């Protein structure tokens, strides 16, 4: 190690986007939830022996990645519970109420939107237990509940 004074990293405009990688137990179920249910599009993918193992999903300016963990072999992994327990991803959007309405119309289970911190917020749980929240700014009263 150098004796030079520590210089903090200043990535500035070099950082462009955070893209979380979610470990999933069943890629088919995860893709059904995110693509068929929420409307994400697969923009990149890795197929291994004819099976989708990793993909990048995008919706508007948001992105995330899914990777099915190997259940056997040298790089296998078995979580003790659902891999997503305790993890919430928040997507800031123009209209969280529209996301809620579209999700319910596609038979997804979403929480009734409520106002918290000046934002409408609705949440869903994906097949692996990840909580997916959508929020949008509002002038509605704090703790208001969507009536629609």
Order of helix and strand elements from N to C terminus: EHEEEEHEEE
CATH architecture: Roll
- Major sheet: arrangement of strands: 1-4-3-2
Topology-level CATH name = 2,3-Dihydroxybiphenyl 1,2-Dioxygenase, domain 1
Tally of contiguous helical segments = 2
Arithmetic mean pLDDT: 92
Q: What is the number of E strands?
A: 8
Based on the model shown, name its key terms.
alpha/beta, 2,3-Dihydroxybiphenyl 1,2-Dioxygenase, domain 1, four-stranded mixed sheet, 2 helices, 148 residues, single chain, globular
Describe the 3D structure.
This protein is of the alpha/beta class. It has a single domain (18-71, 83-137), classed as 2,3-Dihydroxybiphenyl 1,2-Dioxygenase, domain 1, CATH 3.10.180. The chain has helices at residues 27-37, 96-105; strands spanning 21-24, 41-48, 51-59, 62-68, 88-92, 114-116, 119-125, 131-137. Strands 1-4-3-2 form a 4-stranded mixed beta sheet, with helices on one face. Strand 3 (51-59) and strand 4 (62-68) form a beta hairpin. It is globular, with a radius of gyration of 19 Å.
């Amino acid at each position: 190690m150098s004796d030079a004074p520590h210089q903090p990293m200043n990535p500035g405009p070099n950082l462009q986007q955070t893209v979380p990688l979610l470990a999933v137990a069943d890629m088919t179920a995860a893709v059904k939830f995110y693509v068929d249910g929420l409307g994400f599009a697969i923009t990149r993918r890795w197929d291994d022996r004819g099976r989708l193992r990793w993909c990048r999903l995008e919706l508007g300016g948001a992105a995330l990645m899914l990777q099915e963990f190997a259940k056997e072999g040298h790089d296998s992994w078995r979580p003790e519970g659902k891999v997503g327990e305790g993890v919430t991803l928040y997507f800031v959007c123009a209209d969280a109420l529209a996301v809620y309405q579209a999700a319910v119309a596609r038979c997804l289970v979403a929480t009734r939107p409520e106002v918290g911190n000046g934002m409408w917020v609705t949440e869903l749980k994906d097949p692996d237990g990840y909580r997916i929240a959508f929020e949008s700014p509002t002038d509605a009263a704090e703790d208001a509940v969507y009536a629609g």
